[in-house]
Amino acid sequence: MIATFLFSSCASIVTRSVYPLSINSNPTNAMISVTNKRGHEVYSGNTPAVVRLPASNGFFSKAEYQVKFSADGYEEITIPVTFSLDGWYFGNILFGGIIGMLIVDPATGAMWKIDSEHLSVTLRPSAISATPEMKIFDINEIPEKWKELLVKLN
After folding, report:
1. Collapsed DSSP state (helix, strand, coil) of residue 101
2. How far is it, in rounded angstroms, from Cα 80 to Cα 54?
3. In angstroms, rounded to a whole number, what is the distance separating the alpha carbons of residues 93 and 22?
4. Sequence-ordered list of residues with C-beta below 8 angstroms from that of 84, at least 6 positions apart, any chain
5. H runs (alpha helix) in 69-119
6. Closest CA to 118 of 19, 30, 28, 22
7. For the stretch 128-145, what's the b/e string if a residue is b when 16 or more beta carbons lie within 10 angstroms of its beta carbon?
8. How far apart are CA 36 and CA 57, in angstroms?
9. Spatial separation of the C-alpha atoms in residues 114 and 120, rounded to whole Å
10. HSE on the CB side for 18, CA within 13 Å?
11. Fewer beta carbons within 10 Å, N or C terminal of the chain?
12. For residue range 96-112, what is the model confidence (pLDDT) as tens digits?
């Protein structure tokens, strides 16, 4: 019983180190790609989806992810998924002790919690169509990134 108390930690007991992230989009069935902070793809699929994400990126290092949404006829969008320090980590002062605070919770990732377990995005229709067509736009209606590509005609 003493060993259990000494080698356990507060956040590891009360929280988890892997979190489910519910991902939805409008329109549904959008393609998604989840990458970690090193740029490695950890998940690829379509919405709706539930992805299990580790909270840690190594000892004392929180995880960060990017979720890229894409669908034909819609603008691609990337949303960050972040983690922050779990308040239960400070419970080690009373329950887990120095071992929990400096070894167990940082090693298991239980010291971090996901900021939101739900991600829902509405994709915007793309102004550029896959089918060639001619459209006339007012200068005030086009995106700023297009304005950089404009050429003045005399």
Report:
1. helix
2. 15
3. 33
4. 62, 112, 113, 115
5. 97-99, 105-108
6. 22
7. eeeeeeeeeeeeeeeeee
8. 9
9. 15
10. 4
11. C
12. 566 655 556 666 667 77
Token reading at 134: 């001619």
* CA atoms within 13 Å, Cβ hemisphere of 39: 0
CA distances from 102 to 60, 61, 89, 92, 94 (A): 9, 13, 10, 9, 14
Task: Give the domains, in start order, of the chain with CATH numbers.
Answer: 2-125 (2.60.40)
Tallying the residues shown for the chain, one arrives at 154
Contact partners, residue 133, CB within 8 Å, separation at least 6: none
- Answering whether pTM is above 0.85, one says no
Question: What is the per-residue pLDDT across 25-46, written as a single tens digit (0 to 9) for each?
Answer: 999 999 999 999 888 999 999 9
Tell me the two tokens of residue 137. Answer: 């736009």
